[in-house]
Design brief:
alpha/beta, UDP N-Acetylglucosamine Acyltransferase, domain 1, 5 strands
Length: 109
């Protein structure tokens, strides 16, 4: 691995990433206990987790887990159920990596 992809443990960047992971863990914990019909609550939490609004053409049924939420690009017509994702693009031409026991479906063509 090239040195430009490494992060020193005692660096400010590592500390910021560690804090982001803890914050997103808190947010996903709240997301995963919301009532199924609370669409507004889910949308608000996903916006905080992803750093931008979730597309209305993406459906995610909690539970949902991610490391820090940033750089996770969900294409349109994506449905996720019981998911944990690594950063990347999920959908056509995507490079996101699902975790074990993850179910997803890309709908349409």
């Amino acid at each position: 691995m090239s040195s430009d992809r490494l992060m020193r443990i005692h660096s400010a960047g590592f500390q910021a990433m560690a804090e982001r992971v803890l914050r997103v863990t808190e947010l996903t914990s709240r997301l995963n206990v919301l009532p199924f019909e609370d669409e507004a609550g889910k949308a608000e939490l996903f916006e905080q987790i992803l750093g931008r609004p979730l597309s209305t053409r993406v459906t995610i049924y909690p539970p949902f887990y991610t490391d820090h939420g940033l750089h996770l690009d969900l294409a349109e017509r994506v449905f996720i159920r019981i998911a944990a994702w690594k950063p990347g693009r999920l959908g056509p031409g995507g490079n996101a990596a699902p975790s074990p026991r993850c179910s997803s479906c890309v709908m349409g063509g």
